[in-house]
Amino acid sequence: MDWNRLEQKLSARTPGLMDCTRYYAVLVPVVERDGEPSLLYEVRARTMRRQPGEVCFPGGRMEAGESPEDCALRETWEELGIPPERIRLLGRLDFIAHRANFLMQPVAAVVEEEAVSRMRLNPAEVEETFLIPLAHLKDHPPLEYEYQLVPETRGFPNELVGIPEDYRWQPGKENVPVYPWGKHAVWGLTGRITRNLVKFLSES
Asked: What is the CATH code for 18-141+181-203?
């Protein structure tokens, strides 16, 4: 084994999320209207195969060679018709490492209010958009729900690895924040990103 070569390869490598199979990025768009900063959300088209009608941020799966910023800007253009030059990138928020073996990277940005007023929604992907003032999100913490993740171990080779049939597998749990807003609710991963941003702003 050439340890020097291995050391060089490791030192030049940026560690990633182990076993990750997909990478996603979303733009977290802040819009200042009448001096009040708000977050811009979209509602997924009812015709979409996955998560129809749910609230989300513009974003999607990263293509080969794309950075999270590139992906977030591209998806925002494709979904909302907001050109990249009307968006000021602020930086990356905390990423989400999901149990389904994917990583989601939120990118905070300021979007020009005029560009928002001239949005062209892609009807195949977006049904509508709406704004929630950041002040409201700060003053109204989300409803918090939790559900259990129970291991399903039928067929596992207990004898091969040397553990008893009644082995105590470690269960998990999922926290789901929910922000009610009129006829909509911001929840799930979008709710977690929202909560993370509000917490960051409150602590800054």
From this structure: 3.90.79.10
